[in-house]
Design brief:
The complex is a heterodimer of chains A (516) and B (260). Chain A is mainly beta. A five-stranded mixed sheet of chain A has the order 2-1-5-3-4, covered by helices on one side. In chain A, strands 6-38-37-36 form a four-stranded antiparallel sheet, with no helix packed on it. The two termini of chain A are 42 Å apart. The longest helix of chain B is centred in the N-terminal third of the chain and has 29 residues, at 44-72. Chain B has a domain at 150-258: Structural Genomics Hypothetical 15.5 Kd Protein In mrcA-pckA Intergenic Region, Chain A. The interface between A and B is medium-sized, with 45 and 23 residues. Chain A: Pfam families: NLE, WD40.
């Protein structure tokens, strides 16, 4: 029998109300604090923006700081950008990073990190002007595949179509708005291990265990010619040529295979354009950069950089001590979506499309008036390396912290973060500029297989062996939403480029669509 | 220092004999000869024991040779496993087998027929005479004969305290209490010793369930948190049911098989 507590006495009630009132009062900013000097720094470059500005402490809310910074940068009324401010302590010992959540008083002055005498150095990162809501519910669980789902990808055009590859040797295209199957792509004779939409969303490429690559019309769901034969082992990864580099009407596709080669295909004529040989073991991942380079990672511990024009080996990046599992480019998101931006407006002519794609790529890649493509690689040696292949063969930073193999790594669309998923049940978050550790997202109780940023880089979704998806808030580093529902491990997850939906699939053979 | 380690002590004090290595090498080299001599000349019980031991050794030897041969074989066609895995899990041997667990389990659960199937479907009936011994000590007890001692192993929870003698009708002897069970996972073929949480069902009699009597066919709840199983919601499974497969009163231990 449970003991019933007596109702609170009058005195107890009075005390609690007094206490809550006091706490409310503390939340505000005292009037008489004077002003504080603030100096803004760009997080991406580390350089100062404008002079140090004196701001009354009462007015140091994030909203006000945003307005101030926009004015300092001379942004017009309609191109105002929301910012995120962080304070990084200068002495290297404790290496403290504080996120300014509400205002400077609550975050810095009250904890005693800074006084009004000091100049506060604030690092700012521009945020996306649009907001993605956290997905919270499963709108559809679609049966159809006869075997486990191994890969998934949303169309770059919109969140309404998605393709999944499965162990039943088919790939299926789904209408995510209604939760119904659109097309079944039949033709492979073994598991479909990789699926990829072309940047304009017109063609789907699938790579399979049967050593072939097939290309399909995304609208009609029909096969475009026969299989692309040439590999002698299964296909592990696919990468399309970025839209702004494609010759008109002649898109190319790179496929990495277990047979330690990468083949570049001319998709229209179904011919092998180039064969990139040089790796000594299975190639696990291929990425096609926006500056005309192909990056490949392999089990032979190296990452190789090839020229996409003539297939010449440009660089070999060797630092890992074990097989390299995955690669991510800082410009991945811009390259994947090409000319599709958050406004949903598609340029009319082909030239405009190419120009838009090029502009988006350059916008994403430009740091200090230079086009810089960063590369991060995850490996079985429990570490990751951050590279800048353009400038050096040596890594920029070594990202230490995982306690088991790191399986998946990805850059956030705004390049501010790197997220890595490991078999040690953790997702870790790193600074995209210098590779500094930010936080660990704990919560999964099984190996984490994949993770994916939302388009506004404010959230992350991760899929795990423990049958759940979890949505994380990057700002607080906390779990935003737990999405149970899958009945077995979740192999593949993707967040649609417009941020509306999350699609996932796994061993339980059902495709699930999640939205807010 | 234990008394019998005089040789080690001598070696520590004086070092080994100068020809120690030579002698030990020769001894091992001659071992085969000595063995064959023994095998031919031993008689009676000693011969029997020698044969038994040799038989076991040979089994081990054959196993090792077989394993070695398998390792050396280079197969051109890599065997494709039945359940598909994504590209990033291919070439990873350890990742797949540990989790044959839940998928197979869940498939089985879907089959309605398998729902009520247990590994030990029938048990021998145990009468009350066999289960209980009447206590005849003490004046009142002797007269009325209401006190019983349970003659089978029992599980007694950690928070159990004995009642006053006057009110204690059933005595569960300390020496026959069991806390752990050797639980086998049927699909994986792994056996782990797990703590018992409770007795869920004794098929003989609901009274025995209450008393926590462990007989063949009894369903237990065991603590499987070490195995790292997860539910559909991603929580770690704590307790799972298992059925006893041996006669604990004969063996002195509890062997059980996990119900999946």
């Amino acid at each position: 029998m449970a003991t019933l507590l007596p109702p609170p006495t009058k005195r107890q009630k009075r005390e609690t109300t007094e206490k809550s009132q006091q706490q409310q009062e503390i939340q505000g900013i005292p009037e008489n604090l004077g002003s504080i000097r603030v100096q803004f720094f760009d997080q991406a470059t580390g350089s100062a923006t404008g002079p140090a500005v004196s701001v009354p402490v009462g007015d140091t809310s994030v909203k006000n700081l945003e307005t101030l910074l926009n004015t300092l940068q001379g942004n017009e009324e309609d191109e105002r950008v929301p910012y995120r401010f962080t304070y990084q302590s200068q002495d290297d010992k404790d290496n403290l990073t504080v996120d300014i959540l509400q205002d400077l008083y609550q975050s810095l002055l009250k904890p005693g990190l800074k006084t009004t005498e000091d100049t506060v150095q604030l690092y700012y990162t521009p945020q996306a002007v649009f907001r993605v809501k956290a997905v919270s519910r499963c709108t559809a669980s679609i049966a159809g595949h006869g075997e486990a789902i191994l890969a998934t990808s949303f169309s770059p055009v919109s969140s309404s179509t998605m393709v999944t590859g499965s162990g039943d040797s088919t790939a299926r295209v789904w209408d995510c708005d209604t939760g119904t199957p659109l097309h079944t792509l039949r033709g492979h004779t073994s598991w479909v291990l990789a699926v990829s939409y072309s940047p304009n969303g017109a063609i789907i490429a699938t790579g399979s265990m049967d050593n072939t690559v097939r290309v399909w019309d995304a609208k009609k769901g029909q096969v475009l010619g026969g299989p692309l034969k040439g590999h002698t082992k299964w296909i592990t990864s696919l990468a399309w040529e970025p839209y702004h580099l494609q010759q008109t009407g002649r898109p190319r596709l790179a496929s990495a295979s277990k047979d330690s080669t990468v083949r570049v295909w001319d998709v229209v004529s179904k011919r092998i354009d180039m064969v990139l040989t040089g790796h000594k073991a299975s190639v696990t991942c291929v990425r096609w950069g926006g500056t005309g380079k192909i990056y490949t990672a392999s089990h032979d511990k190296t990452i190789k950089v090839w020229s996409a024009e003539n297939g010449v080996l440009l660089q070999t990046l060797a630092a890992h001590a074990h097989r390299v599992n995955h690669l991510a480019l800082s410009t991945d998101f811009a390259l994947r979506t090409a000319y599709h931006d958050h406004t949903g407006k598609v340029p009319a002519s082909d030239e405009e499309k190419v120009a838009a794609a090029k502009r988006r790529f350059e916008q994403a890649a430009t740091v200090n008036n230079q086009v810089v493509e960063k590369l991060v690689s995850a490996s079985d040696d429990f570490t990751m390396y951050l590279w800048e292949p353009q400038s050096s063969n040596k890594p920029v930073a070594r990202l230490l912290g995982h306690q088991k193999e790191v399986n998946y790594v990805t850059f956030s669309p705004d390049m501010a973060y790197i997220a890595s998923a490991g078999f040690d049940n953790h997702v870790k978050l790193w600074n995209g500029r210098d590779g500094k550790f930010i936080t660990t997202l704990r919560g999964h109780v099984g190996a984490v297989y994949q993770c994916c940023f939302s388009a506004d880089s404010r959230m992350l979704v991760s899929s795990s062996k423990d049958t759940t998806l979890k949505v994380w808030n990057l700002r607080t580093g906390k779990l935003a939403m737990d999405l149970p529902g899958h009945r077995d491990e979740v192999f593949a997850v993707d967040w649609s480029p417009d941020g509306q939906k999350v699609g996932s699939g796994g061993k339980d053979k059902a495709v699930r669509i999640w939205r807010n | 220092m234990p008394q019998n380690e005089y040789i080690e002590r001598w070696q520590k004090l004086h070092g080994k004999r100068l020809d120690h290595d030579e002698r030990s090498r020769k001894k091992t080299a001659r071992e085969g000869h000595q063995r064959s001599k023994d095998a031919q000349n031993l008689r009676g019980l000693r011969a029997k024991l020698h044969q038994q031991q040799r038989h076991k050794e040979k089994i081990q030897m054959r196993k090792r040779i077989k394993a070695q041969e398998e390792k050396n074989v280079k197969s051109s066609t890599e065997e494709q496993s039945k359940n598909p895995v994504p590209a990033y899990l291919l070439d990873r041997s350890n990742a797949t087998n540990a989790k044959a667990l839940s998928s197979a389990i869940k498939d089985r659960r879907n089959e309605k027929a398998a729902k009520f199937a247990v590994p030990v479907p029938k048990v021998r009936g145990i009468s009350e005479e066999e289960m209980f011994k009447v206590v005849h000590t003490g004046k009142k007890t002797k007269k009325k004969g209401w006190k019983r001692v349970i003659t089978k192993p029992t599980f007694v929870g950690p928070d159990f305290t004995r009642k006053p003698v006057k009110y204690e009708r059933f005595i569960r002897p300390m020496g026959l209490r069991q806390k752990k069970a050797n639980v086998t996972h049927p699909e994986l073929g792994v056996t782990v010793q797990l703590p018992i949480l409770s007795v869920k069902k004794n098929p003989q009699n609901p009274l025995y369930t209450q008393l926590g009597v462990l007989t063949k066919g009894t369903v237990l709840e065991v603590n499987v948190s070490e195995l790292g199983l997860v539910t559909t919601t991603g929580k770690v499974v704590w307790g799972k049911w298992a059925q006893i497969t041996n006669n604990p009163e004969n063996d002195g231990c509890v062997n059980a098989v996990l119900l999946v």
